[in-house]
């Protein structure tokens, strides 16, 4: 009886984790030009889908795009001209660093502080790891990185993005490679860069 009572208490303390897939259903980023700024109109909805605070996601977007911005009523407003794919790429990075468990791949995680270090703790498998904060400016990174628009590079695809695109890395850049899968070694042409993000296509 004592064992069964202890088991009941343990089950009650276990987080309610639903089953099936990665369970992330994140809306597409809605970008809108606003003079010298670009509005991320559904920033709050994206943050809610990721189960993170809107302000935390907003600050990450600012650092990733290497720009200044303002958060008002759940809408992010960023200095510069950005496309929806720029915001999508930032969301991809944020998801991998601050949401998805690196061990089991599930999004059943939460951010906790341990000894002044922000940790990502997974309620599904119990894994935990420190999260890394971006630092530095885009101009500083671009001086040391060798990724330029129009250039061709050979890269290894090491990850898969939230929407199925391949993800490669070169220097400080995260490169999105549509049509490639994890493990592929491919030749790509860089079409555009934004901060430390790069967008490419496969060489035919």
Descriptive account of the structure:
With 204 residues, the protein is of the alpha+beta class. It has two domains: 100 residues, Alpha-Beta Plaits, CATH 3.30.70.3150; 65 residues, OB fold (Dihydrolipoamide Acetyltransferase, E2P) (Beta Barrel). 26% of the residues lie in helices and 33% in strands. It contains five helices and twelve strands. The strands form three sheets. A five-stranded mixed beta barrel has the order 8-9-10-12-11. It has a four-stranded antiparallel beta sheet with strand order 1-2-4-3, with helices on one face. Strand 6 and strand 7 form a beta hairpin. Helix 3 crosses helix 4. It is globular. About 11% of the residues have low confidence.
Keywords:
alpha+beta, Alpha-Beta Plaits, OB fold (Dihydrolipoamide Acetyltransferase, E2P), five-stranded mixed beta barrel, four-stranded antiparallel β-sheet, 12 strands
């Amino acid at each position: 009886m004592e064992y069964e009572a202890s088991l009941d208490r343990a089950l009650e303390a276990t987080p309610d984790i639903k089953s099936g897939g990665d369970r992330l259903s994140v809306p597409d980023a809605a970008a809108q030009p606003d003079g010298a700024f670009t509005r991320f109109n559904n920033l709050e909805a994206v943050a809610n889908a990721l189960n993170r605070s809107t302000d935390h996601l907003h600050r990450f977007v600012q650092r990733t795009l290497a720009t200044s911005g303002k958060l008002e009523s759940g809408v992010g407003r960023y200095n510069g001209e950005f496309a929806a794919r720029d915001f999508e790429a930032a969301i991809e990075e944020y998801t991998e660093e601050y949401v998805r468990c690196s061990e089991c791949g599930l999004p059943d995680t939460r951010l906790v502080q341990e000894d002044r270090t922000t940790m990502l703790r997974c309620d599904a498998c119990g894994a935990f790891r420190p999260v890394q904060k971006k630092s530095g400016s885009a101009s500083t990174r671009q001086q040391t990185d060798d990724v330029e628009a129009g250039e061709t590079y050979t890269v290894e695809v090491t990850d898969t993005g939230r929407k199925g695109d391949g993800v490669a890395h070169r220097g400080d850049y995260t490169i999105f490679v549509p049509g490639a899968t994890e493990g592929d070694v491919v030749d790509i042409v860089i079409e555009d860069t934004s901060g430390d993000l790069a967008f490419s296509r496969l060489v035919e």
